[in-house]
Structure formats: structure tokens, C-alpha cells
Amino acid sequence: MIKVGIIGGAGYTAGELLRVLAGHPETDVAFVHSTSNAGNSIDSVHKDLVGDIEGDFTDQLNFDVDVLFICSGHGHSRTFVEGNDIPAGVKIIDLSNEYRLKADADGFVYGLPELNLGAIKKATKIANPGCFATAIQLGILPLAANGELNEDVHVNAITGSTGAGQNPSKTSHFSWRNNNVSIYKAFSHQHLGEINQSIQQLQSDYGHEVKFLPVRGNFPRGIFASLYTKCTLSEEEVIEMYREFYKDAAFVHVLDYAPDMKQVVNTNKCLIHVEKHGDTVLVTSCIDNLVKGASGQAVQNMNLMFGLDQKTGLQLKSVGF
């Protein structure tokens, strides 16, 4: 069994991680760390886990584990890693944005399996991708891999309120978010750095921009991204390119119809649809921001690091209609 420790256990990503691990046949959760909830039962905070996860949060660290998931949120992971004597044999999967860029990586491998599969299998430290970054990259990487990104890429993507984290803010509480839609961080979202880095990894001569409009949605979870750019290939050629790029991908499915977001909610899937309109290719990409966009992808990376099948513990079902 893989012994798991979780740091920052009270937030949405940790709760989702525990939900996934509760059904994982090869893991044992050794401890869930939270200074703010130490002594409280885990299911008193993550109430959907009643009957699935037993035990209490602890403020004590225990490095007698095989892997640490750091779910502390942005701005805390590096302090934790550098401030603790973590044994070299303990693998680390960080869900924050602190190690995603190569300039800041300090030995962390960028954990997008569809891009860095071989490196992830050999890694001891993983920087888990951002949720928007996952949906957008999976939507455009086949074009980059084939040298077919030759213009700006325009992206409009809407995300659920859980993407803002568990701590309440003026744009996440119910009375503001419900029956409301708004744009934020237009053209300047923090995930653009890792998106551009991955494009450059596949198509080093790409000199244009990803023009990204992030949108707050009035639903809890899910990301629905629409991407378009100029492309001289036929629709059939582009679709075949995507099918070839993802032929061995465990969770990416290229559909012959436009997907609905509910098809991916509660799953680790990414559903993609491609169509041409004149000289423009339109790509739809949708994921669950907490699963494929965070904790599910983290478990997928753990599986790869420990030599397991990628799908182990991730046979999750959508909410249906």
C-alpha cells in the first residue's frame, strides 16, 4: 500500500483528494494535516465523506509516508517544503502554482500526463497543473505538437465557484455568484505562464499570444473552455491530428459532437470537440476543475510515479442529467 500524507487538509482540493483516495485500492491515508482544524473529525469539514473517511485532522507532521500531497494553497508550498526536513524517499505532489514554471521548479516536474508522461514516471516531485491551464492546454497542444499554431489563440473559459477556493470572498458567496456571470483577470490570468511554457515545449517558434478571458460561472464545479485560432488544415485533418495525439491518453476523449460540462463533473475526464469554420478552428475542452483540474490529476500523477495504471482509483462517474 502507498502511505499518503496530506498537507492543508481542510480545503476543496484536499476534500476532493480524500474522496478519490477513499476509492483507491492501493493507498492508505496516514494523516491529514490542518492547523486550523486540528482535533476535528475529517468528515465534520468534508461532510460528503461521512462513512467514507474516518479519523481527525492533526497539526503534527509525520514523514513516515511514501507520498505527500500539498494542498495548502498558493503562497504556502515553498515555505513548507523549504522549512521541513522531508526525507529524500518521500515523493511530493504540490497542487499550488509555486513550482509550475521552469524558472521556479527546483526539481519539480510539470505534471500534465498528456505532455510529460515519461518524466512524471521518473519524478520524485510533481508540480500539479492549474485547472484552467489543464483545460486550455489539452485543447491546443495537438496543434502545437504539429507546428500548427501560427496565430493568436483566443480563449473564453467559464469556471465554477470552487475554483476560487474555500475561503469566502465577495465574488464567491452565494448571493453574488448565483444568477451571475463576470469576467476577471482578462488577458492576465496566472495560468498563462504555464500554458505558454507548454506551447513552447512543443512548438518553440510560437511567437503569438494566448488571449484568455476567464469567466466566473454560477455553478460550483467544472470548466468549459472555447478556443479558436486560424488554421489552414481541413476539419478532417485537424480531427485526425487530435485523435492521434490522444490515442493513448487515459482520460482525454475526442468526441464527434460538442460536449456538455455535466459529462465531466465528478470525473477525471477531459472531453474535446473540434470543428472548422472557414479558416478558423474551434476547439471545445471541458473538465472538472477539482478532479482533472486538481486532485484527480494529482492521483493520476501518483499512479504514474508508483508504477500503477493511470486509471487506478479514478473510475469516477459523472453526475448525469
From TrEMBL:
CDD domains: AGPR_1_C, AGPR_1_N. It is found in: Cytoplasm. The keyword Cell inner membrane does not apply. Pfam families: Semialdhyde_dh, Semialdhyde_dhC_1. Its EC number is 1.2.1.38. Pathway: Amino-acid biosynthesis; L-arginine biosynthesis; N(2)-acetyl-L-ornithine from L-glutamate: step 3/4. One of its GO terms (molecular function) is N-acetyl-gamma-glutamyl-phosphate reductase activity. Residues 3-123 form the Semialdehyde dehydrogenase NAD-binding domain. InterPro entries: AGPR, AGPR_AS, AGPR_dimerisation_dom, AGPR_type-1, NAD(P)-bd_dom_sf, Semialdehyde_DH_NAD-bd. The active site is at C131. SMART domains: Semialdhyde_dh. It catalyses: N-acetyl-L-glutamate 5-semialdehyde + phosphate + NADP(+) = N-acetyl-L-glutamyl 5-phosphate + NADPH + H(+). Its main location: cytoplasm. GO terms for cellular component: cytoplasm. GO terms for biological process: L-arginine biosynthetic process. Keywords: Amino-acid biosynthesis, Arginine biosynthesis, Cytoplasm, NADP, Oxidoreductase. SUPFAM superfamilies: Glyceraldehyde-3-phosphate dehydrogenase-like, C-terminal domain, NAD(P)-binding Rossmann-fold domains. Belongs to the NAGSA dehydrogenase family. Type 1 subfamily. Catalyzes the NADPH-dependent reduction of N-acetyl-5-glutamyl phosphate to yield N-acetyl-L-glutamate 5-semialdehyde. This is N-acetyl-gamma-glutamyl-phosphate reductase. The gene is argC.
